[in-house]
């Protein structure tokens, strides 16, 4: 787990700099958010549950988590994954109660940031405010893409698309190693995120392996040919907005 204060927001800064270029003062302001005590959630335990009162903004420092909804009979739909550098609902504290839950997939390290501290940073640092707005717009874009995934893509396309998306998101924050990355989500998790049964997920993963598009073993994903997997899933990265022109601006000019 990240423990040094000056390292805690490194992933967040890498992610937000895909949207705009920061000055040293901007980076220092984001680093200051990392001074909150580090909290931990055990694997398969909730950080916050539906119905709870949200009072803070949570920033994931290490591990994987998910946003999910459940039906009264216990059936669960995962509607988003969180990796290091992700906020769990940036503006959720304005609600009276949570309308979804956030659960840890692995052991998760995170910090809780007071709303007034977030607002202070956004008011004082316009570039940070703009980057955080892009962050929220991209979160909405990802939700639209997931809806398209479940509504129109085949099982093969759904799973391939999810694998590409997570690999690209991890690459942005420096958590890939060449064509590989840690991938701790289970086949049940994939099924709950794509609307497929575990049996269907298993069969589809075997097909992708058989076609040489992925290697997935011991919680590690390798994508030998990313462009080929993108074609197989009809993946268009535009919804992640990683080529936003603001990142090319020199913030010190």
Automatic annotation (TrEMBL):
<dbReference type="InterPro" id="IPR000595">
    <property type="entry name" value="cNMP-bd_dom"/>
</dbReference>
<protein>
    <submittedName>
        <fullName>Cyclic nucleotide-binding protein</fullName>
    </submittedName>
</protein>
<dbReference type="GO" id="GO:0005829">
    <property type="term" value="C:cytosol"/>
</dbReference>
<keyword id="KW-0805">Transcription regulation</keyword>
<keyword id="KW-0238">DNA-binding</keyword>
<dbReference type="InterPro" id="IPR012318">
    <property type="entry name" value="HTH_CRP"/>
</dbReference>
<dbReference type="Pfam" id="PF13545">
    <property type="entry name" value="HTH_Crp_2"/>
</dbReference>
<dbReference type="GO" id="GO:0003677">
    <property type="term" value="F:DNA binding"/>
</dbReference>
<dbReference type="InterPro" id="IPR036388">
    <property type="entry name" value="WH-like_DNA-bd_sf"/>
</dbReference>
<dbReference type="InterPro" id="IPR036390">
    <property type="entry name" value="WH_DNA-bd_sf"/>
</dbReference>
<dbReference type="InterPro" id="IPR050397">
    <property type="entry name" value="Env_Response_Regulators"/>
</dbReference>
<dbReference type="GO" id="GO:0003700">
    <property type="term" value="F:DNA-binding transcription factor activity"/>
</dbReference>
<dbReference type="Pfam" id="PF00027">
    <property type="entry name" value="cNMP_binding"/>
</dbReference>
<feature type="domain" description="HTH crp-type">
    <location>
        <begin position="153"/>
        <end position="227"/>
    </location>
</feature>
<keyword id="KW-0804">Transcription</keyword>
<dbReference type="InterPro" id="IPR014710">
    <property type="entry name" value="RmlC-like_jellyroll"/>
</dbReference>
<dbReference type="InterPro" id="IPR018490">
    <property type="entry name" value="cNMP-bd_dom_sf"/>
</dbReference>
């Amino acid at each position: 787990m990240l423990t040094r204060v000056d390292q805690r927001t490194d992933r967040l800064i890498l992610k937000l700099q895909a949207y705009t270029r920061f000055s040293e003062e901007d980076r220092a302001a984001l680093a200051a958010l990392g001074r909150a005590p580090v909290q931990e959630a055990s694997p398969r335990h909730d950080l916050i549950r539906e119905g709870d009162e949200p009072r803070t903004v949570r920033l994931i420092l290490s591990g994987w988590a998910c946003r999910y909804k459940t039906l009264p009979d216990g059936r669960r739909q995962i509607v988003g994954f969180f990796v290091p550098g992700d906020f769990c609902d940036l503006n959720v504290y304005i609600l009276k109660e949570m309308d979804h839950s956030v659960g840890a997939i692995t052991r998760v390290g995170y910090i809780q940031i007071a709303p007034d501290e977030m607002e202070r940073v956004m008011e004082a640092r316009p570039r940070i405010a703009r980057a955080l707005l892009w962050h929220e717009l991209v979160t909405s874009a990802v939700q639209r893409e997931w809806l398209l995934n479940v509504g129109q893509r085949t099982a093969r396309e759904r799973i391939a698309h999810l694998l590409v998306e997570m690999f690209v998101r991890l690459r942005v924050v420096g958590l890939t190693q060449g064509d590989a990355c840690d991938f701790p989500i289970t086949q049940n998790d994939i099924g709950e995120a794509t609307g497929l049964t575990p049996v269907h997920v298993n069969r589809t993963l075997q097909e992708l392996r058989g076609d040489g598009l992925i290697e997935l073993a011991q919680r590690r994903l390798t994508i030998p040919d990313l462009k080929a997997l993108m074609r197989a899933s009809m993946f268009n990265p535009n919804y992640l907005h990683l080529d936003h022109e603001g990142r090319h601006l020199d913030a010190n000019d």
